[in-house]
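Because showing beats explaining, we let one protein speak, sequence and backbone structure tokens together, and leave readers to judge.
___
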Amino acid sequence: QCYVTMSGVVGNLPNVENMDIHYAESCILTPSDFPFSRDGVAADTAPNTETIALADLSISDLLTARQSGAVQNLKDRRLDLYQVAWKKN
């Protein structure tokens, strides 16, 4: 479980080849679990509008979801299909 920020470039960038027109919609995504928003979107922006997406993100909610949330990606993995080896630096 993690927070994801997707941002894009909007507007015009003249005098740059193949970069003259931009279209994007940015957002801040959360895990799809109970302490977070129902649709997994903490904040989003209007399409093709120069604006900033802001959201209050709780690290403690994220840690709680990792330990006891409804979705347990790390605990539910299929060890019979692949193996994970952690590297020490």
Q: What stands out?
A: The helical segments are 59-68. The mean pLDDT is 88.
